[in-house]
Write a structure and sequence with these properties.
Layout lengths: L1 E4 L6 E4 L10 E3 L6 E3 H6 L8 E4 L11 E4 L8 E4 L3 E7 L9 E2 L11 E8 L4 E8 L6 E3 L2 E2 L6 E2 L5 E4 L2 E6 L1
Parallel strand pairs: 2-5, 8-9
Antiparallel strand pairs: 1-2, 3-4, 6-7, 6-16, 8-10, 10-11, 11-14, 12-13, 12-15, 15-16
This protein binds zinc ion.
Length: 173
């Protein structure tokens, strides 16, 4: 546990440093809601104080699930897909079966259930891990310009590029 004082309202805060999500640089003070830099926490620890708030990141809204940004082209309007915890099957929108992860497009080279992205909670860090695979698509899937092999599973990183059919997707953590 690290003890600090909020630089804005000066309340004492106790922070479990092992629970700070790796992908955040700033969080909000639970008392005054002002932003506090993680680097401030690490540099400005103070002696333990009786009047403290224990700050928990486990169910913090900073631990957001990533998105897929669909880049626009002649066949596809720009759109964003919010990933959900669990398995997300992504592909071309069907007129009869619409899902939250279907893409509005005229790109016929994109299958209806082209790729899968499994989102799993990383219990150690409180963030999420993203596993990408080709879902037996007709025209295969490019990951950072290389074909994904059948059965291959890729751990996505921020700004990775996925191409399904003629459509490019950017993963945003
Ligand atoms: Zn504060």
């Amino acid at each position: 546990m690290i003890s600090i004082r909020c630089p804005h309202c000066h309340i004492g805060l106790k922070i479990d440093e092992s629970k700070i999500p790796a992908n955040i640089q700033v969080f909000n003070c639970p008392k005054c809601k002002q932003p506090i830099q993680v680097s401030y926490v690490l540099k400005n620890r103070v002696a333990d104080d009786s009047e403290t708030v224990i700050l928990s990141f486990s169910d913090d809204k900073n631990a957001k699930i990533g998105k897929i940004h669909v880049l626009p082209n002649d066949l596809t309007p720009e759109q964003t897909i919010q990933l959900l915890e669990g398995v997300n099957i992504i592909g071309r929108k069907s007129p009869i079966q619409k899902t939250a992860t279907s893409i509005e497009t005229m790109d016929k080279l994109m299958s209806r259930t082209h790729i899968g992205i499994e989102v799993r909670k990383n219990t150690e860090k409180g963030d999420f891990i993203y596993y990408l695979y080709d879902n037996k698509s007709t025209n295969r899937t490019l990951y950072n310009n290389k074909y994904i092999e059948p059965g291959e599973v890729i751990t996505l990183k921020n700004n990775d590029e996925i191409q399904i059919g003629q459509t490019r997707l950017i993963f945003e953590e």
